[in-house]
Amino acid sequence: QVQLQQSGAELVKPGASVKLSCKTSGYTFTSYWIQWVKQRPGQGLGWIGEIFPGTGTTYYNEKFKGKATLTIDTSSSTAYMQLSSLTSEDSAVYFCAKSYDYDVPFAYWGQGTLVTVSA
Amino acid sequence: DIQMTQTTSSLSASLGDRVTISCSASQGISNYLNWYQQKPDGTVKLLIYYTSSLHSGVPSRFSGSGSGTDYSLTISNLEPEDIATYYCQQYSKLPWTFGGGTKLEIK
Question: N or C end of chain B: which has fewer CB within 10 A?
Fold first, then answer.
């Protein structure tokens, strides 16, 4: 069965960077898009960007360009998102998700990673 | 960007009720519309894709409809495990955008 296992909670200082992971299993990693989503406490969902592991092609939401960088490691079927120059506004839960057939996005979700930015 | 609007932010219903949640897009999205369920523990699942297709493993009491700019999710015969927040999302045009969510509670 499809599984997306995300890395554990992070407590990071303002100005620092953090790299989140999303380890996948149960399907062909290189055949489906991986999306990343941000959810601030008590707020809705916002698309950050996505990457196609087969080619490395990426698309970013303009709001997150310069903030998020998406990468993949095909040898371990793992996707990564690095967040840089962190501020309190970056404190949130970050989800990874994978697409479905016909490029339907967000078909399967990870459990989320809580990032807290605090001195 | 395409704006997705869920005008009802919270909704209270009784077990066994039929519940409809609405979503509208700022422009036509050609049925490229998904619905998600987020449980109180934070887990998120896809329920409906392409307006009305039921995702694998989703109970048949969930259904979707709509066209153009207006879409809806219906839950027939509400069950306790349906307590959650429901989001619509368009994938007609990048950036993908979500509605603000509708929180469903038991009356």
Answer: C
